[in-house]
Amino acid sequence: MNAKIESFKQLINKLAGHGATSYEFRTALISRLREIIPFDAACFTAVDPQTLLSTGAVTEEGVEAIHHRLFEYEYVQADFNTYTQLVESDIPVATLSGATNGQMERSARYRHVLQPAGFKDELRAALVNDQSCWGYLTLFRKQGSPLFTESERDFVAELVPAIAYQLRAIHLSLPAEDTVWIEEGPGIMVLSDQLDIISFNDASAYWLHLLRQWEHITNHVIPRPIQAVCTRALADSAGSAGSSSLAKVCLRVPNGHYVTIQASRLNGPAGTIQLAVWIGAASPNDMLPYLSEAYGLSEREKQILDRVVKGLSTKELALSLHISAYTVQDHLKSIFIKTGVTSRRELLWRLFSRFHVYDTPDTTHLK
């Protein structure tokens, strides 16, 4: 078994190589994993590690029809093996048959979603690397197929770190220097609580087209990141600003752009519930965590970069972090080395010109 695991880990690295996109990597991995562990359908979702919401999914036949219901039982209904639970678990892989001791009827998700769709058992893996989750993998077996075994669960559990590592690497790979950034304005939509589009502006049609293209889905399917943020917003029964802030994803799309999608719950006419959705280029606060990870910055260096972008001087940086100006300079030197620049002015200009982190770089105080 150890030899088989090591061989498959090497295969994972190979599948992620040669500039594979996240979609290509996930599609290929499902195909090769089926050669080792039989299953009837699969869903492989990439997620925003900040909010654990979907940034796009690869779904096989039979899963697409129930995909929106799976969102409901992840974010709205309490049930066995939610991904939020698995992310916090010592072993982030579980089967529905194992969690219910073979009594799948104890699961509302099984009774109302899986069984009506012809599925019997489900194996779920939260893909965690370095304490951050980058995706969810779900395997399904139909009625009449054997249940997932403990050894199969253990096999997938051994692969989790390697799969998560490659998902992370793909997500954090920096866009090319000559990337042309999308200049389209924000898309704004209003949806019903059933996720039917009620109204939208012209820009949202543009963003919907791109999201569907990136996910390889048809025009009648609402992109999964929009489904995720909307379902999460609906789960906030009070609809308060504090909780609705979680209904948000930042995703890196194939051509290197960073896009933010956010939903807020609205009180509609006659007590109805509606959802406002915003889609557009990511803000500095959304992008910087990923850029900091991509450049391998330490936690302290991330704090300093965030303050540099906000325009703080060395003295202000030292005061805000309760460290000396000399220590600030040491951290800045390390940041310069990791990002390939030689000064604060050059660092800001790189963030501005390459990543569009902010509108107009003010470098007058950076002498």
Task: Explain what you see.
By secondary structure, the protein is α+β, with helices and mostly antiparallel strands. The chain folds into three domains: 2-172, 2-Layer Sandwich (Beta-Lactamase), CATH 3.30.450; 187-282, Beta-Lactamase, CATH 3.30.450.20; 286-355, Arc Repressor Mutant, subunit A, CATH 1.10.10. Helices cover 45% and strands 20% of the residues. It has 15 helices and ten strands. The chain has helices spanning 2-16, 22-34, 67-75, 83-88, 96-99, 108-114, 150-172, 202-215, 224-235, 241-244, 284-294, 299-309, 314-321, 325-339, 344-355; strands at residues 41-47, 54-59, 93-95, 119-129, 132-142, 187-192, 197-200, 248-252, 258-267, 273-281. The strands form two sheets. Strands 2-1-5-4-3 form a five-stranded antiparallel sheet. Strand 4 (119-129) and strand 5 (132-142) form a beta hairpin. Helix 1 (2-16) runs parallel beside helix 7 and helix 11 (284-294) runs antiparallel to helix 12. Mean pLDDT is 88; it is low at 238-244 and 358-367.
Mind sketching the topology for me?
Elements: H1 2-16, H2 22-34, E1 41-47, E2 54-59, H3 67-75, H4 83-88, E3 93-95, H5 96-99, H6 108-114, E4 119-129, E5 132-142, H7 150-172, E6 187-192, E7 197-200, H8 202-215, H9 224-235, H10 241-244, E8 248-252, E9 258-267, E10 273-281, H11 284-294, H12 299-309, H13 314-321, H14 325-339, H15 344-355
Antiparallel strand pairs: 1-2, 1-5, 3-4, 4-5, 6-7, 6-10, 8-9, 9-10
Helix pairs in contact: 1-7, 3-9, 11-12, 12-14, 13-14
